[in-house]
Structure prediction request, 121 residues.
Amino acid sequence: MRTYTENLMTTNGLTLATGMGRNGIGTAHAAGAARMVKHAKNVALFLAAPFIGLAYLLAFPVIGFGLLAWVAAKAVMKNEKARPVALALAAPFIGLAFVTVGPVLGLVALAWYGGKAAMKG
Prediction:
């Protein structure tokens, strides 16, 4: 044995010289657990990477067309002659959005106020 290890063993006892603390949990175990958690995160990210890439691949065209439509709509709304035509073309889609989203928002509002009333009473 090396002199340093022998001094540790005679001064602090065998448990501290072997890497075990007073509570019985060694630093080697904590380091091994940390390595295992890091390894598990890396494996999980490796397995999830194709799905994350697929989500980006599917989202980019939608976001691009949405941005293009947004910029075009802003440009059309500045033109006084094209604005009424654009609003007339957009009216059915705006109405459809209200008809689709309206009942859902109404149910959410009803649940919200009902939940608040139930919490008070």
DSSP finds four helices and no strands in the chain. Residues 79-121 form one domain. Residues 98 and 105 are 10 Å apart (CA to CA).
